[in-house]
Description:
By secondary structure, this protein is α/β, with parallel strands linked by helices. It has two domains: 97 residues, Rossmann fold (3-Layer(aba) Sandwich); 130 residues, UDP-N-acetylmuramoyl-L-alanine:D-glutamate ligase (3-Layer(aba) Sandwich), CATH 3.40.1190.10. The chain is 34% helix and 22% strand. It has a six-stranded mixed β-sheet with strand order 8-7-9-6-10-11, sandwiched between helices. A five-stranded parallel β-sheet has the order 3-2-1-4-5, sandwiched between helices.
Amino acid sequence: MTHVAERTIPERVHLVGVGGIHMSGIAQILRDRGHTVSGSDLQLTPLTRKLEALGVTVHEGHARNNIDDAGLVVYTSAAQADNPELAAARERGVPTVKRAEMVAVLQQGKKVVAVAGAHGKTTTSSLIAWILHEAGLAPTIMLGGEMRNLRTNALPGDGPHFVVEADEYDRAFLNYHPYVAVVTNVEPDHLDIYGSFEELQAAYAQFLAQVDISGFIVACLDSPPLQACLSQRQAILPET
């Protein structure tokens, strides 16, 4: 893993898999913060066309030359190990980071509201984002789907909050240290990644243990597996 601080993000960033819902959100926020952004994906979509309208250079297909003179390459978990753009970055000594690691960098200096769970993440995170937006708090928003009210999946904001849909795939949510963690439920999912339901629950417990000491957790206690995760969290927390 390459360690990147928000203040040291290079001017030029390339995203492998930029058409993904979360990757496109990264591109939008980087553009708003003044970075030159390019990306690639296997096919162009309405989402990539939206990015192009925002000034993102989008390449159809993956090729070594796509990364051009990027100072950082961000890649989706779906990217193959032999992806030509990642290979070119490694050969040139260009730092590479996974999608969730980059999201964590963008969260720095914000009060993160992270919404996790097997179901209801997009709806719940959209509701929270809309409330904060309508309250005039100008949150930064990164969702797993397009929010009808705002007609976008991501929205840069100058306010103190960063609302993010925290998915558990590839242990992505373990990159986040939220001020508020919202967990809708816990069910067997992505067992190809975790190997067992017990390991998935352990990951949720770790995620909950990473909540800021001054923050709080909102959890649906109608989910017995989630109750178990909350109990496991207590064992992880350092003694005070």
